[in-house]
Amino acid sequence: MTLPSVLITRRIPDSVLQRLEPHCRIDLYRGDGAIPAAELHARLSGKRGLMCLLTDRVDAAVMDAAPELRIVANIAVGYDNIDCAAARARGIVVTNTPDVLTEATADFTWGLILDVTRRVSEGERLVRRGAWRGWALDFMLGTDLRGKQLGVVGMGRIGRAVAARAGAFGMRVAYSTVDAGGPFAGPHGEPYAAMCLDELLTSSDVVTFHVPLTPQTRHLVNRRSVLRLKRGAYIVNTSRGPVIDEEALAWALGEGLLAGAALDVYEREPAIHPDLLRLERVVLAPHLGSATVETRTAMADLAARNVIAVLAGGAPLTPVPA
Ligand code: DGY
User: Fold this and answer.
1) Ligand 1 pocket, 295 CB below 6 A?
2) Could you tell me the CA-to-CA distances from 182 to 67, 103, 175, 188, 212 in Å, in that order?
3) What pTM did the predictor assign?
4) Spatial CA neighbour of 112 closest among 257, 227, 284
5) Which end of the chain is more exposed for a tag (fewer CB within 10 A), N or C?
């Protein structure tokens, strides 16, 4: 029996390759960086499975390059890089990697919150350029989190995991959902305040975004909504870059309307708006939310298990919502 062919668009852990090997013939792209679009088209021909990353645009034309394609397994929880309607129309299953990256991403979000409010990266840059003149009572003061409000936009798995950690820092939680959901409460039953986005923006000291990228969430932070933010608030984004209009954010930071921002994702990765690069009170991380050995291995492994299940004629483990 001929094993089905699967294209994998980036190097993945050996343990995951070993899991796949008995079930399929693997065509692994070994280049550095994302597979070029033309190569994706060419190598997908004849494939029944595709394991891809958020840096691969999988649209109708790509799918048409592989009429036998049965599954697109994204190694990411977000799947805005895939045209799911086109996949559905062609009978192709799309899967993502929920759950396995929730805790790592929530931990990282808190890393960013602490970094920007306590000016860690800014201080580190200062030390490295030799500008530190020693301890002073009023030097590089940040902001206490205790007693402040964390505004969580999006209460999916990651938003809830971020909210669940707020008590450890003495913060109360307010949330806003893009779809109906809730009510939500903390790990000890403490109620969270449900708010519309506008109320959340005007009342929160730190606003953190955990929404998928959809037409509805694109530029949730824009020239208009940025003015609704509480003066001196902080913005944190570990979801998808286009949720924030970088131009508007840079403008608000430059005008001193916000105290700072911490971003892990960008509108045109890996490019970053030049004004953000110039601003000191901005922490810029290179899309590291889920970047631990354990989590990235678990993500690749879940994608592989989806491929194996579907190519064996079974149900996908984690199909994207219809
Ligand atoms: C995801 O899985 O969508 C993340 O952005 C990758 O870290």
Assistant:
1) no
2) 41, 20, 10, 16, 17
3) 0.97
4) 284
5) N
Q: Whose CA is nearest to atom 2 of ligand 1?
A: 76
* Domains, the chain, ordered by start: 5-100+293-311 (3.40.50.720), 102-284 (3.40.50.720)
pLDDT, residue 1, reads 74
Burial class of 203 by CB neighbour count within 10 A (0 to 12, 13 to 18, 19+): middle
Longest dimension (CA), the chain: 74
Ligand 1 atom closest to 74 (CA): 2
Average pLDDT value for residue range 281-291: 98
Coil vs helix vs strand at 220 = coil
Residue nearest to atom 3 of ligand 1 (CA): 78
Ligand 1 probe mutation, 77, 81, 214, most atoms within 8 A of CB: 77
Taking the centre of ligand 1 as the mean of its atom positions, its distance from the CA of residue 289, in whole angstroms, is: 7
Cα(238) to centroid of ligand 1, in Å? 9
Is 236 within 8 Å of 207 (Cβ atoms)? yes
Instruction: Sort 219 into a burial class: Cβ within 10 Å, 0-12 / 13-18 / 19+.
Output: middle
CA 176, CA 146: separation in Å to the nearest integer? 21
pLDDT digits (tens, 9 = 90+) for 144-178: 999 999 999 999 999 999 999 999 999 999 999 98
Whether the Cβ atoms of residue 58 and residue 84 lie closer than 8 Å to each other? no
Candidate of 105, 269, 293, 301 to mutate for ligand 1, largest count of ligand atoms within 8 Å of Cβ: 105
pLDDT averaged over every residue in the chain: 97
